[in-house]
């Protein structure tokens, strides 16, 4: 909770900065900026803070997750991109901060290559949203605001 409002952190991993241009037949035409603009508007409507972070670098994502431990974040929505199938380090960071999270994928990873079916996050996520396109972000933000408990501030 920050400034009397529930706070959601939305993290996007590698290549999600290319939403809208990268393989639009899989990921749609909405850009990451479209997703962020809609999320900020949704935050206003829900009386919540919605923060966004995107990085192609694993360490930057880990640093942002660790920062969330003390910045009033009540829940995380993470689209780990390609790190879904490879990053024990991001998984450990999420578990280390003890902030509940939702795993999100714009495309249906289970309808793609076999190696994309495994996730290092699914077994620890409070919810998983897969294949709903950019609308999945709205579903996830709403769920965090309405269903996740407020966290005590940690220093």
UniProtKB/TrEMBL annotation:
The annotated pathway is: Aromatic compound metabolism; 3,4-dihydroxybenzoate biosynthesis; 3,4-dihydroxybenzoate from 3-dehydroquinate: step 1/2
Catalyses:
3-dehydroquinate = 3-dehydroshikimate + H2O
Record EC number: 4.2.1.10
The answer, when asked if Transferase is one of the entry's keywords, is: no
Domain of life per record: Eukaryota
Keywords annotated in UniProt: Lyase, Quinate metabolism
This chain's protein is named: Catabolic 3-dehydroquinase
Which family is it part of?
A: Belongs to the type-II 3-dehydroquinase family.
Which positions in this protein are listed as binding substrate?
79, 85, 92, 116
Catalytic residues? 27 (proton acceptor), 105 (proton donor)
Pfam families noted in UniProt: DHquinase_II (PF01220)
GO MF terms here are: 3-dehydroquinate dehydratase activity
Q: Which SUPFAM superfamilies does the record cross-reference, listed alphabetically?
A: Type II 3-dehydroquinate dehydratase
- Site described as Transition state stabilizer, positions? 22
Q: What is the protein's known function?
A: Is involved in the catabolism of quinate. Allows the utilization of quinate as carbon source via the beta-ketoadipate pathway.
Q: Quick one: signal sequence residues?
A: none
Enzymatic class = lyase
Q: How does it assemble?
A: Homododecamer. Adopts a ring-like structure, composed of an arrangement of two hexameric rings stacked on top of one another.
* Any one GO BP annotation for this protein: quinate catabolic process
């Amino acid at each position: 909770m920050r400034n009397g409002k529930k706070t959601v952190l939305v993290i996007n991993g590698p290549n999600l900065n290319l939403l809208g241009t990268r393989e639009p037949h899989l990921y749609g035409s909405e850009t990451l900026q479209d997703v962020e603009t809609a999320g900020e508007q949704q935050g206003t409507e829900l009386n919540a803070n919605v923060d966004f972070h995107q990085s192609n670098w694993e360490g930057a994502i880990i640093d942002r997750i660790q920062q969330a431990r003390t910045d009033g974040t009540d829940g995380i929505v993470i689209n780990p991109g390609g790190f879904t199938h490879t990053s024990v380090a991001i998984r450990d960071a999420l578990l280390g901060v003890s902030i509940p999270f939702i795993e999100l994928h714009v495309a249906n990873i289970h309808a793609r290559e076999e190696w994309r079916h495994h996730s290092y996050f699914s077994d620890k996520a409070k919810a998983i949203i897969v294949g709903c396109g950019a609308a999945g972000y709205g579903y996830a933000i709403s769920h965090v605001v309405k269903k996740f408990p407020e966290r005590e501030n940690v220093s």
